Amino acid sequence: MSILQTAVTAKAHTNIALVKYWGKADQSLIIPTNDSISLTLDHFYTTTTVRFDAHLTADEITLDGLTLPTDGQQRMRHFMDMIRHEAKITTFAHIETANHVPTAAGLASSASGFAALAGAAAKAAGLSTDRQYLSRLARRGSGSASRSLFGGFVHWHAGHDDASSFAEPLTEKVTWPIRMIAIVTSRAEKKIGSTNGMQASQSSPYFADWVKTANADISPMTAALFKEDIKSVGEIAEHNAMSMHATTLSAEPPFTYFNSGSLQAMQAVQDLRLTGVNCYYTMDAGPNVKVLCEAADVPAILARLQPLFGSYNLVVAKPGPGLTYL
Ligand code: 2P0
């Protein structure tokens, strides 16, 4: 009882995938069809406080001080039910979340959100705070959250069941000055969320090839990250992202996350490369483009992108840390 009343606050950062997660082998347990690799980012994070309270008749959830709409609450309530099941308790909780992820930058707040919630809820419920266990819990909130438990470069092993599907760090403290520049090409809410988008992509005749491509990218990407080889990292990440997006274009019915700004941004990155700048693009489940490069090349890249997109639409991020308790 006394343990359950303690408020626990956890902080987790969002991540960008260099080898993408796109497809589920098990929808309910969130077991992915392929392994993925990501970079955890600084600056963009979520803090979540969980406090169990025997007086509550339902979980009380606020985001940035406001009560979440019912839709948004449902996924978190479902997650909390899983925590209660794990901890063999029936008590509901106060959950306060603050998001420091600019939604406009097209970075997933579900990754940092469910990583922070997993960390805070597990500790508040008296469960283990072993990172591998927390990664498995976070995965069941949102797949990409499994990677946000760790800092730096992270590998999510697809596995084949709940116990074998978790992330682990490749290098938690990255000293390599790798950077990601987000180019915001739209501030509108995305039309097809990741969960629905990846399910739709699984109707593509090329989906099986996507899974093969992604799994085959893991070993060379890992080697390139350890070598701090921006050219190889960028080339693999770019090809991997376009292979993922090919499954949207070939889905039945087809759809795309690209808008005209996305194409313009990718073209600008290709043009910069022709001038000798090592920069590469990747895209997630939205129209914004993310550029991978080294810190020394950021000024030249920004100089090229600013007239096209405006400095307000360019966000630079570096490697960030894993879960911490505040
Ligand atoms: C990724 N994305 O690896 C990929 C690339 C988006 C594109 O992980 O259904 O929000 O909650 O498990 O984790 C976004 O997917 O999906 C994502 P669910 P999630 O970063």
Automatic annotation (TrEMBL):
Q: Which terms are listed as keywords in the entry? A: ATP-binding, Lipid biosynthesis, Lipid metabolism, Lyase, Nucleotide-binding
- Where is each Mvd1 C-terminal domain found? 181-311
Q: A single GO molecular function, which one?
A: diphosphomevalonate decarboxylase activity
Question: InterPro entries, per this entry?
Answer: GHMP_kinase_C_sf, Mev_decarb, Mev_diP_decarb, MVD-like_N, Mvd1_C, Ribosomal_Su5_D2-typ_SF, Ribsml_uS5_D2-typ_fold_subgr
Any Pfam family the entry gives: MVD-like_N
- Family annotation (Gene3D superfamilies): 3.30.230.10, GHMP kinase, C-terminal domain
Q: Which GO terms describe its cellular component?
A: cytosol
This entry's Enzyme Commission designation comes to 4.1.1.33
Q: Which GO terms describe its biological process?
A: isopentenyl diphosphate biosynthetic process, mevalonate pathway
- Describe the location of the Diphosphomevalonate decarboxylase-like N-terminal domain by residue ranges: 12-167
Report the family membership. Belongs to the diphosphomevalonate decarboxylase family.
Protein's UniProt name:
diphosphomevalonate decarboxylase
Which organism's genome codes for this protein?
Furfurilactobacillus siliginis
